Amino acid sequence: MSPGTRRVLLVVLGVVALGIGGWAYFAPEAWYGSFPGFGLRWLPVLGPYNQHLSSDVGALYLGFAVLTLLAAGRAADTALVRATGAAWLVFNVFHTAYHLRHLDMHSATDNLLNAVSSGVFLLISAALLLPLRRGSAARG
Q: What values do phi and psi take at 104, rounded to 5?
């Protein structure tokens, strides 16, 4: 994988994390009531709103956004990129597994969208563990 490809993947993860994190932290009730947006509401079926938990999720995503966007700026730094990818991979494996175990909570369309989006982020995370192509670091 090239540093440019790494950078794109990291920016995608970082921007998504920044959006989710900012929304969940600064408007936790609105986030809880209308995540992921676009007229969909995936969180209310999981239980009652909890401001502390919602704000903590926002803070977690904001922390991931900082790490991920810093790594995007140093995409040729294999150790940093792999550590970032590993952290995301741990989160995304457990996050995806949770949703796959609870398919009864949502409609078929919501389940499909949830599984696809979770799966995409899991694959992006795993891709960040791939080595640089030979000679790519010098072109960084």
A: -75, -10
pLDDT in tens, 65-92: 999 999 999 999 999 999 999 999 999 9
Helix axes 78-101, 3-26, angle to 10 degrees: 50
Residues 6+ apart with CB under 8 A from 50: none
The residue whose two tokens read 């080595």 is 131
Quickly tell me which residue has 């995806």 as its tokens.
96
Output b/e per residue, 101-140; b: 16+ Cβ within 10 A. eeeeebeeebbebbeeebeebbebbeebbeebeeebeeee
Q: Residue 58 has which token pair?
A: 């926002």
CA separation for the pair 47, 70 (Å, rounded): 35
